[in-house]
Amino acid sequence: MLFKNALIENAADPADIRVENGIFTQIGALSPLEGEDVTDLGNRLVLPPFIESHVHLDTCLTAGDPVWNMSGTLFEGIECWSKRKDKLTHEDIRERVKKVVGMYAEHGIQYIRTHVDVTDPELVAMKAMIELREELKDIMEIQIVAFPQEGILSFPNGKELLREAVEMGADAVGAIPHYEFTREYSVESLDYALRLAADNDKLVDVHCDEIDDEASRGLETVAARALELGLFDKVTASHTTAMHSYNNAYVLKLMRLLKLSRINFVANPLVNTHLQGRADTYPKRRGVTRVKELTEAGINVSFGHDDIRDPWYPMGNGSLRDVVFMGLHVCQMMGYEDIMNSYKFITSNAAKTLHITDHYGIEPGKPACFVVLDARNYYEALSRDSKVTGSYKNGKKIDVPSH
Ligand code: FE2
Question: Ligand 1 mean position to 266 CA, how many Å?
C-alpha cells in the first residue's frame, strides 16, 4: 500500500510512504508497484499517533452525577466523587470507558496511560480496566497504572492492595506522596512503590507533589530511588505542581539529580491551571510545573488531560489539541519553534514516558501507525483546530466506534 504526498512531522516537502504487512517499509519519492493500492494524502500533515500519557478513565464522564462540583475545587471534587463512588460498578465503568475511548479515537489517539484507583478493597475499577485493555486493543493500546488515590500508608491495607493490583496485571505502579499523612509516610510509600516496581519489572508513574505547597518534595525521593534502583526512564513523575513554587536555588540543585535519574515528567495543563492556586488570593500561582525549563535541560516532558468531565474537571472532549493549546499558553512557550515542536508533548515525548519507543514512530521497520491532519504543519493544525482526517493502525484506517 502506498500513501502519496505526506508532509511528515512538519516537513516542507511531501514524501510517500510504503506500508507492507502493516509495517512501514519505505519513505521517500516512491512510484506505485504493479497492482499496489494508492491513497493520496494531498499534502496533509502526517504525525505519529497521539498519545494520552495521563488520564483517569475510571472517573471520566461522571461530572454532575449525582451532584455538580459548584466551587470547582479539588476538595469539593473529592466530596462529589465519594457520593459517585457508591454507584461504581463493573458495568458502569465499562460503559463510560468505551465511550471515552471512542472520543479519543476520533481525535487520533491510539495509546492511553490510565491511572486506576486501587484504594478499594474490591478493586472494582482495576478488574474492569484489565478486561477493557484486552477488549479494546485493536483501537487503543491501554497502559494501566495501579493508583493508590487515598495513599499507600494512609489507607487501610494500602500496601497489600497495591501489590494485589500489580499481581492482577497492572503495567505500572503509582504513589501519591503529597497525600500521605506525614513526610515519613511519603518517603516510605515511595520506597515501597519503586521497590515493588523493580521487583516485578513494572513501570512507575507517581502522582507527585500535586499541591501548591513549596515544602512538598516527593520528587527528589522519586528521582533518587529511580537512580539507585536503576529504573531510570521507566519512572515518571506526574503533575509536580509544587515545583512551580520551589525556590530557584533548590531547583538549581534538584536539576542535577533529575538529569542523572533520567525520569520523565507529565504535566496536565488543563486540570492544573483549573485546580492550583486555589488557596492564593492575589497574585495567584499558575501551578503548572516548569515545562519550559525541564525541556531546555533535555528532560523528557509529555502532556495529558488528567480528567474528562468528572468531579475535578467539567470539560474535555478527548482532543489532546486543547491540552497542548493550554500548555503552551500557561508555560509561555508561544515562540514559533515552540509551537511547531509542541506536537512532541503528545507524540514522541509521550512515547518515551510510556516506554513504547520500540514500536512507535514513522520509520521503516516500525508498525505503520500514524495520523493525518487537515493542515500543512502543526502551527496551522493548532491555530485552526484542524481535524484528524484519518488514524491508521498497522496500515489500516481505524473505524471510530460510536460514542
Ligand atoms: Fe491524575
Answer: 10
Q: How far is CA 349 from CA 53, 233, 273, 355, 359, in A?
A: 9, 12, 21, 10, 14
What would the pLDDT profile of 251-304 be if each residue is shown by its tens digit?
Answer: 999 999 999 999 999 999 999 999 999 999 999 999 999 999 999 999 999 999
- What region, left, alpha or beta, does residue 306 occupy, with left being phi > 0 and alpha being psi -120 to 50 degrees? left
| Nine cell digits for residue 57 | 478513565
**Catalytic annotation on 210?**
yes
Burial of 138 (0-12, 13-18, 19+ CB in 10 A): exposed
Q: Over the stretch 198-251, which tens digit does the pLDDT of each residue have?
A: 999 999 999 999 999 999 999 999 999 999 999 999 999 999 999 999 999 999
What gap in Å lies between CA 241 and CA 372, rounded to an integer? 33
Residues 291 and 386 both lie in one domain: no
- In sequence order, the 6+-apart residues with CB closer than 8 A to the CB of 363 are 24, 27
Q: State pTM to two decimals.
A: 0.98
Identify the domain containing residue 30 by its residue range: 2-48+361-397
Same domain (yes/no): 79, 125 = yes
pLDDT reading at 121 higher than 90: yes
154 alpha carbon – ligand 1 mean position (Å): 18
Q: Centre a 10 Å sphere on the Cβ of residue 273 and count the other Cβ atoms it contains.
A: 16
Task: Reduce the DSSP state of residue 396 to 3 states and report it.
Answer: strand
Q: Which three cell numbers stand for residue 174?
A: 503509582
- Please indicate, yes or no, whether residues 125 and 155 belong to a single structural domain of this protein: yes
How far, in Å, from the CA of 306 to the mean position of ligand 1? 5
Task: State in Å: Cα 143 to ligand 1 middle.
Answer: 14
What CATH number corresponds to the domain at position 8? Answer: 2.30.40.10
| Percent of the chain whose pLDDT exceeds 90 | 97
Would you say residue 402 lies in a domain?
no
Query: How many A from CA of 60 to the centre of ligand 1?
Result: 12
The reply to whether 261 and 375 lie within a common domain is: no
What are the beta bridge partners of residue 38? 2
- CA 271 to ligand 1 center in whole angstroms: 9
- Gap between the Cα atoms of 141 and 202, Å rounded: 17
Which of 36, 210, 363, 380 is catalytic? The answer is 210
Q: 172: which 3 cell numbers? A: 505500572
Is 74's pLDDT higher than 90? Answer: no
Q: Ligand 1 centre and the CA of 384: distance in Å?
A: 28
